[in-house]
């Protein structure tokens, strides 16, 4: 595994630690980044301010599924920057219709509500579901409920943290939005017991990413689909992290041929260039929205629509999905070989892995710092679980290099303890 000799024209090196020290007093401490200061990137490689290169095995939490600065996406962005960037939705523009038509076709659904961030897509999906419950299902006003799964991660707004069970994400941010019921993930009986005539929707991640890449049993998603259909409530699939090629299919629900009523997309939809998210839904559901009832100044702007359409171009080839599926077996087999050698358990689907490391070897954070020393960027989730989600453009050789670095890190750690 060799890093490209040059990512960008030579720059004057700057001190990473000086830059980190300078930002600390002026930047909110809502993140605890690894001690690396990135200055430029291409494909799966990033380069820091001191000229060191790292393999990016996080890919912006799957916002960079196509790698850093994919040439086709950069070209689409440049072309659009030279023509039109923002109109607001007060007017039509010539890029949005094409983007919406193609996104609906890609996902097998009918109508698109363009937003910007993932959390906004989740909020918008909840609003659409509640309105559908009142206008179509006939739930008494103010009584609609949404059933969610324990261990979920759907974003950071006040309503979304209201139905999180992560104390760090919630603590100190109440009062919380009512109308949510939490059931264990991957438990159809518990879900069935929680659904009643007030239920507008069941909101789930088809794979729980932040929880540690938790993959439900085969048949769970099909079961949720049948249950929601039978009980006349909507299935909202949050595919903001799992969608758009990551798992080896366009969507994670495709593994069970499940079509949700409402699909939430974000992250990779913006090609790693601009924030682009969307709610995609069946016509009967999305039709509950009328003018003035929801919106966003930046949602569906021309630059976002142009980049989003270029992302769809890439996905329509199917090449990223099949590459993710193929290299997913390399990732799976590599982790299987490390099981018992520092790895206590792991879950993979496509190019996405949650890796539980023996806690006696260190926290997830410790391991990420050691991998950083080895030139590999990853991020821990909870406890001693780390997640790997490289750009879908990674080569077999690069992936094997990352797995070797993980093996070395675990051995060095074992030797040190
Ligand atoms: C990242 C993420 C979100 C929130 O997206 P933001 O763009 O950070 O607001 C929501 N749901 C899931 C599953 C995510 O992974």
Kindly list the characteristics that best describe this protein.
globular; ornithine aminotransferase; 4-stranded mixed sheet; Aspartate Aminotransferase, domain 1; PyrdxlP-dep_Trfase_major; Aspartate Aminotransferase, domain 2; transferase; PyrdxlP-dep_Trfase; 2 domains; binds pyridoxal-5'-phosphate; 36% helix; alpha/beta; 417 residues; aminotransferase
| Element order: H for helix, E for strand | HEEEHHHEHEHHEHEHEEEHHHEEHEEEH
Radius of gyration: 22 Å
> Which stretches are poorly predicted, pLDDT < 50 over at least 5 residues?
none
- Biggest sheet: strand arrangement: 4-10-9-8-7-5-6
Could you say which overall geometry the principal axes of the C-alpha atoms support? globular
Please count the helical segments.
Answer: 14
Question: Beta-strand percentage?
Answer: 15-25%
Please describe the biggest sheet, giving its number of strands, its sense, and whether it closes into a barrel: 7 strands, mixed
Number of strands: 15
- Briefly note the CATH topology name of the largest domain: Aspartate Aminotransferase, domain 2
Instruction: Name every ligand kind in the structure.
Output: pyridoxal-5'-phosphate
> CATH-wise, what's the superfamily of the largest domain?
Type I PLP-dependent aspartate aminotransferase-like (Major domain)
Mean pLDDT: 96
Highest-level CATH class of the largest domain: Alpha Beta
CATH architect. name of the largest domain: 3-Layer(aba) Sandwich
Kindly give the count of domains: 2
Spatial gap, N to C terminus:
28 Å
Which structural class is indicated by helix and strand composition? Answer: alpha/beta
**Helical percentage:** 25-40%
GO molecular function: identical protein binding; ornithine aminotransferase activity; pyridoxal phosphate binding
Cofactor: pyridoxal 5'-phosphate
GO biological process, one term: L-proline biosynthetic process
EC number: 2.6.1.13
